[in-house]
Design brief:
Layout (H helix, E strand, L loop, with lengths): L6 H6 L12 H23 L3 H7 L8 H9 L10 H9 L17 E6 L5 E6 L3 E6 L5 E7 L7 E6 L5 E6 L3 E6 L6 E3 L7 E4 L12 E6 L5 E6 L3 E6 L4 E7 L4
Parallel strand pairs: 4-8
Antiparallel strand pairs: 1-2, 2-3, 3-4, 5-6, 6-7, 7-9, 10-11, 11-12, 12-13
């Protein structure tokens, strides 16, 4: 059986010669091989399952699933009450993508913001050129809704879907947020042409003295309110049912 050198050993391999210190290249290669093996063992220990975890699973190493590992941790199969650093690295390593990325769409302007819906079935992306696209993940990433936004200042800064996925709000670097019904059957939504994009004015509070831009917006969990963060060092809460701004909190700096 022949001995195959590793890539590192091949890179640093030299014919056997004697150096001035009296050590031959064979001695140096042996030291390098030992170092290489030490690094390999340390990496395997730190990124692989511990022996105690293997024994507690009572199954073949190749069939240990992440679900089985998490269940074993909950009932403390290993007796440690937690994952070792190697166990954690093993589980997280399984979440690293193996393939891709792949191109799903191409637009004429820069994508500025994107997010999945809460259940992961829809993907929303906002573009600098006044476009918002909603993709249907379960149907091969086809375009579910193509929204042509209105009254933008530079770009769409954020988007948010309502919990029931019927409405979408989008913000810009202005104190106005727009809300649009995305539950209709039509694929195209042109602001105030095919659909009404209602304006929600966040500058109505008595303490607001100058214009500002909204950088983030989010529906509340019940879909009754919007929370927005702006560049005037404030958080805003908008009551959708009352159709008015209900709260301004000087709460952060940018």
């Amino acid at each position: 059986m022949g001995y195959g050198m590793s890539r590192l050993e091949e890179e640093y391999y030299e014919p056997e010669v004697q150096n001035t210190a009296g050590s031959s290249s064979a001695d140096i290669n042996e030291e390098f091989s030992n170092l290489h093996n030490d690094i390999f063992q340390m990496t395997r220990i730190r990124s692989g399952l511990s022996e105690s975890t293997y024994k507690s699973m009572s199954t073949d190493r190749s069939t240990i699933s992440t679900t089985k590992l998490l269940s074993g941790r909950e009932i403390d199969c290993s007796g440690k009450g937690m994952f070792s650093s190697g166990d954690r690295a093993f589980v997280v390593g399984r979440c690293i993508p193996k393939y891709g990325p792949e191109l799903l769409d191409r637009m004429d302007s820069h994508a500025y913001v994107s997010q999945f819906s809460a259940d992961g079935t829809l993907f929303v992306s906002g573009f600098q050129g006044s476009y918002i696209r909603i993709y249907d993940v379960d149907r091969g990433w086809i375009v579910h809704k193509d929204i042509h936004a209105r009254s933008l200042r530079w770009t769409i800064s954020d988007v948010s879907l309502s919990p029931d996925q019927r409405y979408l709000v989008y913000s810009s670097l202005a104190p106005i947020i727009h809300i649009v019904n995305v539950g209709s059957s039509a694929r195209e939504s042109y602001a105030n042409v095919t659909d009404i994009h209602d304006e929600l004015d966040f500058s109505q509070h008595e303490d607001v003295q100058y214009s500002f831009g909204i950088f983030s917006v989010k529906f509340s969990s019940d879909g009754r309110e919007l929370v927005a963060g702006s560049n005037d060092d404030s958080l805003y809460v908008y009551d959708l049912h009352a159709n008015k701004l209900s709260l301004r909190l000087p709460a952060h700096t940018v």
